[in-house]
Amino acid sequence: MKSRRKEIISYFKRMDRSFFMDSNKDLAVFDQALPIGFEQTISQPSLVLEMTLALDLQPGQKVLELGTGSGFQTALLAAFSGSVYTIERIDELHKRAQERLGQLDFRNIYFKLGDGSEGWVEQAPFDRIMVTAAASEVPRELLEQMSKDGKMVIPVGSSFSQELRLIEKDNAGKVHTTLLNEVLFVPLKGKYEK
């Protein structure tokens, strides 16, 4: 499979992060996480790009995203995959993201309001899974919902110390883990919350 790294980076550089924010728009150009309300944040741009590149998105793939948030990460995923199934537990963020992404005319994003910690079993399996909140451990349900040759990027750890991990499932169904970075995300609410 051909790497789409340059194409993704080019698209990412053209994205207007402020479009996905209701306040602090003047700070959107800085490489830092910023509050979006409800004790949630829009991640720092360099981390959004790093996580997206780690997934190695390919045309036609089915992607699960846990934590729609502002919709910024969702837009990047949707531009480089076949379909994105995104789950957000906070109703107001869910509605705002739907509205924004609708304005951008994405037709391949499917939204769900609810607890994403157990995935979206009705739509499984997924070729790629993006988790934008930290779990205390890798959810077993998400591993089960990954297709063979699937990849997942997920922050794992406590509220003070987290590892960004790339989880890969090979053709035989065996799981391999690579540590990508040290990070700090808001907690993944639900079953895998510490």
Descriptors for this entry?
194 residues, alpha/beta
Describe this structure in words.
The structure is a single chain. With 194 residues, the protein is of the alpha/beta class. The protein has 5 helices and 9 strands; from the N terminus they run H-E-E-H-E-H-E-H-E-E-H-E-E-E. A 7-stranded mixed sheet has the order 5-4-3-6-7-8-9. It has a two-stranded antiparallel sheet with strand order 1-2. It starts with a helix and ends in an 11-residue tail after the last strand.
Fraction of residues in helix: 10-25%
Largest sheet: 7 strands, mixed
Strand content: 25-35%
Structural class: alpha/beta
The gyration radius over C-alpha positions equals 15 Å
Question: How many DSSP E strands?
Answer: 9
Describe the global form.
globular
Output mean pLDDT. 92
Strands in their spatial order, largest beta sheet: 5-4-3-6-7-8-9
Low-confidence stretches: none
| Cα distance spanning the termini | 38 Å
- What sequence of helices (H) and strands (E) makes up the elements? HEEHEHEHEEHEEE
Count of helical stretches:
5
List the helices and strands and how they pair.
Layout: H1 5-14, E1 34-37, E2 40-42, H2 45-55, E3 62-66, H3 72-79, E4 83-88, H4 91-103, E5 109-113, E6 126-131, H5 140-145, E7 146-157, E8 162-169, E9 175-183
Parallel strand pairs: 3-4, 3-6, 4-5, 6-7
Antiparallel strand pairs: 1-2, 7-8, 8-9
Subcellular location: Cytoplasm
InterPro entries: PCMT, SAM-dependent_MTases_sf
EC number: 2.1.1.77
Brief synopsis:
With 194 residues, this protein is α/β, with parallel strands linked by helices.
